Amino acid sequence: MKQMARVYYNYFKLYFVSLHQYRANFLMNFLKLPFIFILYWYLWKTLYLRIDSTKLGYSFNELLLYLFDVQWISFCISANISEKISSDIRSGTLSIYLARPVHYLPAQFAGFFGQIIFVLVIGIIPLVCVHWLLSSKIPNPLCFFPVLLGAGVVHFLLEACIGSTSFWMDKVFGLKHLLMTFFNLAGGKLIPISLFPSWFIKISFLSPLRAIYFEPVRTLASQNSITTVSTTIVLQGVWVILLTFILFRIWKKGAVVYDAAQ
Fold first, then answer.
1. How many domains does the chain have?
2. Could you read off the pLDDT of 40-55 as tens digits, one per residue?
3. What is the largest CA-CA distance in the chain?
4. Residue 86 domain boundaries
């Protein structure tokens, strides 16, 4: 067990080091956040000048903070796991992993977790600064980090489920685009779910992205309410269990197809 844990730790460290070696490219991606933030500021500022903002339930600063937090979380967990898995399956690279005494999926998660840690090291200062500027308050890391980690796990499992369909499909881009189009709306990535009608809010509970974006951002906005944190973690836990079951069912059936094709 100890030796196996060391192997997964090496996957984590390898991915962390690779991000550090290519940090210039990584930082260029990070710099797109201010441009997205400026674009949101201009669009919503124009909208707020033309409507009664009290009907939205968000002040201008609160909405800006929500949109920033969503983009920040997306940046933390934006690894294309589905495309990586799809590429390994279609190219036959998966056979190399299967020959090793390590399970493929936990190894990929170890690398994914390395990215989250790396991004947190870089991104925590901008997060604190923006929260201080827009709300004069700083998020409590002890409340938010567990929720962010939960969001990362749900995101990884969802991406892995999509990528694993490559056992039967040549490309996963179409399926991923179709699912993400709905999930981005129902998950609160584009605008807060609370701005939608009540029937859509109920449907949004069917979206795993709600546990990735809307609820973690709500945790930040709730000023570290223990109740909100607990509710978010429970929702994430439900999706982790459900997606883990779906993933291993897909993987078990897909591995049979993959072995037969070799």
1. 1
2. 777 777 777 677 666 6
3. 63
4. 2-261
